Amino acid sequence: MKYFSTRGGSQLLSFEDTVLTGLAPNGGLYIPQNIPQLPSDWRTAWKDYSFVDLSVEVLSLYISHEEISRAELRALVEKSYKTFRHPDITPLKKLDDKTYILELFHGPTFAFKDVALQLLGNLFEFFLVRRNARQLVEGKQERLTVVGATSGDTGSAAIYGLRNKANISIFILHPKGRVSPIQEAQMTTVTDPNVHNLAVKGTFDDCQDIVKALFADHEFNKTHRLGAVNSINWARILAQTVYYFLSYFHLQAQVPTPDVEIQYVVPTGNFGDVLAGYYAKRMGLPIAKLVVATNSNDILARFWKSGAYEKLDSTTPAPAGDATQPAEGASDGKQAQVTGGVKETLSPAMDILVSSNFERLLWYLAYESVEVDPNAHDDTRRSKAGETVDGWMKLVKSDGRVQVPTSVLESARRDFIAERVSDDQTLDTIRAQFEAPVSYITDPHTAVGLTVARRVAQHNPPSTVQIVLSTAHPAKFSEAVTRALSTASAFDFERDVLPDEFKGLLERKRNVVDVEAPDVELVKRVIEKYAERPSVVQESGVSSGSV
Ligand SMILES: *Cc1c(COP(=O)(O)O)cnc(C)c1O
User: Fold this and answer.
1) Measured from the CA of 268, which atom of ligand 1 is nearest?
2) Are 345 and 336 in contact (CB under 8 A)?
3) Tryptophan synthase beta chain-like PALP domain spans which residues (predicted)?
4) CB burial class (10 A; 0-12, 13-18, 19+) of residue 500?
5) Which numbered atom of ligand 1 lies nearest the CA of 272?
6) Per residue in 151-185, pLDDT tens?
7) Is 113 a catalytic residue?
8) For ligand 1, atom 11, which residue shows the shortest CA distance?
9) Domains along the sequence of the chain with CATH
10) pTM for the whole structure
């Protein structure tokens, strides 16, 4: 299996190069040459498979055995999911006859990104160790310096994915004092010598700008071989397809009738999680609909209403008589905070202006819409799809928007439904589910999904069952959960939510370097100092240095 860019070109990459490259040089995202189909006996043969067994089956359809043998793949997958606390890895919980929750937060940082990043870290290490073994004769050793900015969530999952990996250093920048105490502690209490936290005096945007400047600095980039672990990495999408299969089998084991229609409802930001479901569906998993749930950063919800993929920032007034609002009145109770066009919500991991992985879906939609001579070679059709996507993305860049043809919107609607949810509705849902017959406490991201599930269910045929993906443990977003349940007398945060792993976390040793100004030169100095050397960890909660 080879991979190519959504924006065309003749470049074909191996899985290894796809994973190590991340973003294609022409700005596109890599997608597989074709979507493999499930073996004809998958329903019976895979029925009792574990998460690890299913990972091996599904992943090996996308990775040539010459690149990673089945035995090597199994070892990588086993190692990746050993760090999870639940024997099912991603267990399915029943809320009521029509609604199930797929818990994706049993990894080391209590959020769904662990599912992908635990595997990605091991893949990086596997490739680098193998390359270095081959190059031993010439004495050249490849290293990777992963650099990223975080407002909290992704940073800790990346750190836990890459801690203690051979030939890799990781530098994560966060805005000092602007990350929730639990998330800051999750990142900075990791004391492996290859992990470096930089607390930058500035905002999250400052951190992001510094990271962009580092990647744009050719000299620096070449010297340190910078790498990214962001959500466009193909391996992350691939790892996430597995829980769609596992939950399908777990649901079959629980529902009385075998012919239910399954809807997956996915709290969505960068479109990575729900895109994995799209691949599972295209491979042959019987999914009736994929439901995209957004917060008030609703570029996707608006796309499925109008066919316009359009950035709306604070300077763009909402059109009068806004037809993009869902009928069920999703207007925010109060004006949401706006920074750089992104609205700050109670579900911050979904606060985005554009959804980077959406480009992959656009490619498939463009491909379907290409009108060609039926005898034309598939390559012709593919290259037309690449040109179309390239054109669309150029428009998004220059005009901030693109309007796709009606036929494209219609085909997007065959597989997906999309809805947006306000903060007030999110809080209402957390409260309602806590007080429901099956009392269950969701984090605010999951609550966005559950809100949409309830809304969509009103129009569902009786045979439909919904699986809502739960993307974070409620203890990670204590503020929203506590606010939602402040009037519930039966609720006690420490007793009902706080996991043992979080207790005492705030008092643990910290591994963090203070960066006194949002200055790229200061950050470079830290990277140069530590890239190949261990960092110093101090005894008390003080930082290990500052620049
Ligand atoms: C990243 C994240 C999401 C959004 O996932 P995408 O793949 O970016 O759509 C939702 N919830 C939580 C808790 C996350 O960390």
Assistant:
1) 9
2) yes
3) 94-323
4) exposed
5) 7
6) 878 899 999 999 999 999 999 999 999 888 888 99
7) yes
8) 471
9) 51-87+104-236+509-546 (3.40.50.1100)
10) 0.92
